[in-house]
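User: Predict the structure for this protein chain, please.
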Amino acid sequence: MEPHTKRRAGSPDTDLGTERVKLDPQTRQRIEQAVLDIFADREFHRVGLIEVARGANVSLQTIYKYYGSKEALLFATLDTWLGKLSVRMIDHLQGIEDYKERFRKVFWVTLDFFEHHPKVGQIIMSSVYVNTWRKQANYANPELFGTFLKVLGEGRARGILNDEVEEKYLLDVIMGVLGRLVQMHIHRGMKEPLTAQAGPLFEMLWRAIAKPVS
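Assistant: Here is the predicted structure, written as structure tokens:
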């Protein structure tokens, strides 16, 4: 997952984001919960905004006023949840000095988050199309991906991580592993904790991204 250019100031999406701040927090929570419940079960094109409005007990006009489109509604909801992940990640990194342990914590926190919020993972897998996602600034989620890239940059600067490829490709490998683990956890019916084998799985990933020993 590679960060993309942010929206231009004054664009319709930016204006809607500013307007959305005025939305009553409880109403926004009901709307975004309805998005989770509905989009997690069906593909994007099979969901109508009227269903979300009914699920959140708000008018369709409210959805359009504060979100503008189905795409914006979906990504605003994902941005909220990915923001919660980034806050947890930053909090858990406090006080950990050893680099490998910092990275281990990032890995564990991500798995733990999707273990407890599987609907977020289901939406990413079933309702988000790559070409649509690429056009959204929320795809970059600066807090979340900024944290990942900061940790990766630190590792490369200290000669710990592989420096033969750019940081974005290291991030691709990490996200590919995490994404597959979350996907198959859901596909297999979530019968055991996603974090059950976090230790050995992390060691496998670590060997893939650590700087080769000469």
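The chain has one domain: 12-209.
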